[in-house]
Amino acid sequence: MELHGERVIPASLEATWAALNDPETLKACIAGCESLERSGDDAYTAVVAMKVGPVSARFRGNLKMTHIDAPNGYTIAFDGQGGVAGFGKGSADVKLTAEGGAATKLAYSARATVGGKMAQIGSRLIDAAAAKITDDFFKAFEANLQALRAAAEGLPVAVPVRVRQPAGALGWVLAAIVVLAAIYLILR
User: Fold this and answer.
1) pLDDT digits (tens, 9 = 90+) for 24-69
2) Domain range spanning residue 108?
3) pLDDT tens digit string along 67-91?
4) What sign does the dihedral 158-159-160-163 (CA atoms) show?
5) Distances from the Cα of 170 to the Cα of 7, 10, 41, 77, 132, angstroms
6) Whose CB among 13, 15, 133, 149 lies 3.0–4.6 Å from 98's, allowing a Cys bridge?
7) What is the C-alpha separation between 79 and 71, in angstroms, rounded?
8) Cβ–Cβ under 8 Å, residues 95 and 22
9) Structural domains in the chain (count)
10) What's the pTM?
11) What is the CATH number of the domain that holds 124?
Protein backbone atom coordinates (compact mmCIF):
# COMPACT_ATOMS: atom_id res chain seq x y z
CA MET A 1 0.00 0.00 0.00
CA GLU A 2 1.25 3.46 -0.84
CA LEU A 3 -0.04 6.75 0.56
CA HIS A 4 0.91 10.16 -0.78
CA GLY A 5 -0.38 13.56 0.11
CA GLU A 6 0.28 17.03 1.27
CA ARG A 7 -1.43 19.49 3.53
CA VAL A 8 -0.94 23.17 4.24
CA ILE A 9 -0.64 23.64 8.00
CA PRO A 10 -1.65 27.12 9.23
CA ALA A 11 1.51 27.61 11.30
CA SER A 12 5.12 28.56 10.76
CA LEU A 13 7.71 25.95 9.79
CA GLU A 14 9.29 26.16 13.25
CA ALA A 15 5.96 25.79 15.10
CA THR A 16 4.95 22.85 12.89
CA TRP A 17 8.30 21.12 13.42
CA ALA A 18 8.11 21.66 17.20
CA ALA A 19 4.57 20.25 17.38
CA LEU A 20 5.55 17.26 15.28
CA ASN A 21 8.31 16.59 17.78
CA ASP A 22 6.07 16.76 20.83
CA PRO A 23 4.82 13.28 21.78
CA GLU A 24 1.93 14.71 23.85
CA THR A 25 0.65 16.80 20.94
CA LEU A 26 0.90 13.83 18.62
CA LYS A 27 -0.77 11.48 21.08
CA ALA A 28 -3.67 13.92 21.38
CA CYS A 29 -4.07 14.06 17.60
CA ILE A 30 -3.83 10.36 16.72
CA ALA A 31 -7.17 8.58 16.90
CA GLY A 32 -7.00 5.63 19.27
CA CYS A 33 -3.47 6.43 20.49
CA GLU A 34 -3.10 5.13 24.03
CA SER A 35 0.60 5.89 24.40
CA LEU A 36 3.48 7.44 22.48
CA GLU A 37 6.76 7.41 24.34
CA ARG A 38 10.38 8.04 23.50
CA SER A 39 12.37 4.79 23.60
CA GLY A 40 15.72 6.11 22.43
CA ASP A 41 17.34 8.72 20.25
CA ASP A 42 14.83 9.45 17.50
CA ALA A 43 12.87 6.30 18.44
CA TYR A 44 9.38 5.88 19.90
CA THR A 45 7.04 3.14 20.99
CA ALA A 46 3.32 3.49 20.52
CA VAL A 47 0.12 1.66 21.41
CA VAL A 48 -2.87 2.39 19.17
CA ALA A 49 -6.32 0.82 19.31
CA MET A 50 -7.79 0.29 15.84
CA LYS A 51 -10.96 -0.96 14.24
CA VAL A 52 -11.26 -1.57 10.53
CA GLY A 53 -14.49 -3.21 9.45
CA PRO A 54 -14.93 -6.30 11.62
CA VAL A 55 -11.32 -6.33 12.85
CA SER A 56 -10.41 -4.61 16.13
CA ALA A 57 -6.97 -4.72 17.67
CA ARG A 58 -4.48 -2.96 19.87
CA PHE A 59 -1.27 -2.46 17.93
CA ARG A 60 2.06 -2.09 19.66
CA GLY A 61 4.59 -0.52 17.41
CA ASN A 62 8.02 1.00 17.07
CA LEU A 63 8.91 4.17 15.19
CA LYS A 64 12.41 5.22 14.21
CA MET A 65 13.30 8.52 12.57
CA THR A 66 16.20 8.63 10.14
CA HIS A 67 17.56 11.08 7.58
CA ILE A 68 16.58 13.93 9.89
CA ASP A 69 16.98 17.36 8.32
CA ALA A 70 15.52 19.70 10.97
CA PRO A 71 13.21 21.52 10.39
CA ASN A 72 12.72 20.34 6.82
CA GLY A 73 11.88 16.66 7.14
CA TYR A 74 12.86 13.08 7.87
CA THR A 75 12.08 9.44 7.17
CA ILE A 76 10.13 7.33 9.62
CA ALA A 77 10.37 3.54 9.70
CA PHE A 78 7.61 1.75 11.58
CA ASP A 79 6.42 -1.70 12.49
CA GLY A 80 3.56 -2.88 14.62
CA GLN A 81 1.95 -6.07 15.87
CA GLY A 82 -1.75 -6.48 16.56
CA GLY A 83 -1.87 -10.11 17.65
CA VAL A 84 -4.27 -12.20 15.57
CA ALA A 85 -5.44 -9.04 13.77
CA GLY A 86 -2.11 -8.93 12.00
CA PHE A 87 0.88 -6.69 11.55
CA GLY A 88 1.95 -3.63 9.65
CA LYS A 89 5.33 -2.27 8.66
CA GLY A 90 6.74 0.31 6.33
CA SER A 91 8.31 3.73 6.07
CA ALA A 92 7.31 7.30 5.30
CA ASP A 93 9.16 10.31 4.02
CA VAL A 94 7.98 13.64 5.44
CA LYS A 95 8.96 17.02 4.02
CA LEU A 96 8.12 20.43 5.45
CA THR A 97 8.32 23.58 3.33
CA ALA A 98 7.62 27.15 4.46
CA GLU A 99 4.65 28.68 2.64
CA GLY A 100 5.10 32.31 3.62
CA GLY A 101 5.57 33.18 7.29
CA ALA A 102 2.35 31.73 8.64
CA ALA A 103 1.94 28.43 6.80
CA THR A 104 3.85 25.22 6.19
CA LYS A 105 3.33 22.62 3.49
CA LEU A 106 3.67 19.09 4.88
CA ALA A 107 4.15 16.48 2.15
CA TYR A 108 4.34 12.75 2.87
CA SER A 109 4.91 9.57 0.93
CA ALA A 110 4.43 6.28 2.76
CA ARG A 111 4.86 2.66 1.88
CA ALA A 112 3.27 0.02 4.07
CA THR A 113 2.42 -3.64 4.10
CA VAL A 114 -0.13 -5.37 6.30
CA GLY A 115 -0.61 -9.03 7.05
CA GLY A 116 -2.98 -11.26 8.98
CA LYS A 117 -6.71 -10.57 9.28
CA MET A 118 -6.08 -6.92 8.49
CA ALA A 119 -4.82 -7.88 5.02
CA GLN A 120 -7.88 -10.07 4.39
CA ILE A 121 -10.32 -7.17 4.80
CA GLY A 122 -9.59 -5.71 1.42
CA SER A 123 -7.61 -2.77 0.19
CA ARG A 124 -10.62 -0.51 -0.42
CA LEU A 125 -11.72 -0.68 3.21
CA ILE A 126 -8.15 -0.18 4.45
CA ASP A 127 -7.55 2.71 2.02
CA ALA A 128 -10.80 4.41 3.08
CA ALA A 129 -9.95 3.99 6.77
CA ALA A 130 -6.42 5.31 6.20
CA ALA A 131 -7.79 8.38 4.39
CA LYS A 132 -10.20 9.10 7.26
CA ILE A 133 -7.50 8.67 9.90
CA THR A 134 -5.19 10.99 8.01
CA ASP A 135 -7.89 13.65 7.72
CA ASP A 136 -8.82 13.31 11.41
CA PHE A 137 -5.16 13.62 12.41
CA PHE A 138 -4.64 16.81 10.41
CA LYS A 139 -7.83 18.41 11.74
CA ALA A 140 -6.79 17.70 15.33
CA PHE A 141 -3.18 18.74 14.67
CA GLU A 142 -4.22 22.07 13.14
CA ALA A 143 -6.66 22.75 16.01
CA ASN A 144 -3.89 22.10 18.54
CA LEU A 145 -1.49 24.44 16.70
CA GLN A 146 -4.15 27.16 16.57
CA ALA A 147 -4.75 26.78 20.32
CA LEU A 148 -1.00 27.05 21.00
CA ARG A 149 -0.74 30.17 18.84
CA ALA A 150 -3.74 31.77 20.56
CA ALA A 151 -2.26 31.03 23.98
CA ALA A 152 1.09 32.54 22.95
CA GLU A 153 -0.69 35.69 21.76
CA GLY A 154 -2.72 35.94 24.97
CA LEU A 155 -6.02 35.25 23.21
CA PRO A 156 -8.78 33.04 24.60
CA VAL A 157 -7.88 29.42 23.97
CA ALA A 158 -10.38 26.90 22.68
CA VAL A 159 -9.92 23.37 23.98
CA PRO A 160 -7.74 21.48 21.47
CA VAL A 161 -9.40 18.68 19.56
CA ARG A 162 -8.85 15.15 20.87
CA VAL A 163 -9.96 12.47 18.46
CA ARG A 164 -11.50 9.81 20.68
CA GLN A 165 -12.91 7.12 18.42
CA PRO A 166 -10.73 4.10 17.67
CA ALA A 167 -8.34 4.55 14.78
CA GLY A 168 -8.98 2.78 11.55
CA ALA A 169 -6.67 0.78 9.39
CA LEU A 170 -3.21 2.11 9.48
CA GLY A 171 -3.84 4.90 11.94
CA TRP A 172 -0.62 4.33 13.79
CA VAL A 173 1.21 4.28 10.50
CA LEU A 174 -0.24 7.59 9.45
CA ALA A 175 0.28 8.91 12.86
CA ALA A 176 3.82 7.85 12.59
CA ILE A 177 4.07 9.43 9.22
CA VAL A 178 2.70 12.69 10.26
CA VAL A 179 3.46 12.33 13.80
CA LEU A 180 6.87 11.19 13.95
CA ALA A 181 7.36 13.03 11.00
CA ALA A 182 6.03 14.96 12.26
CA ILE A 183 4.91 12.33 13.37
CA TYR A 184 7.50 12.77 15.49
CA LEU A 185 5.67 11.15 14.96
CA ILE A 186 7.67 12.49 14.53
CA LEU A 187 9.81 14.25 16.99
CA ARG A 188 12.58 15.38 19.20
Assistant:
1) 888 999 888 999 998 988 899 999 887 766 777 888 999 999 999 9
2) 2-178
3) 999 999 999 999 988 888 888 889 9
4) negative
5) 18, 25, 24, 14, 10
6) 13
7) 24
8) no
9) 1
10) 0.77
11) 3.30.530.20
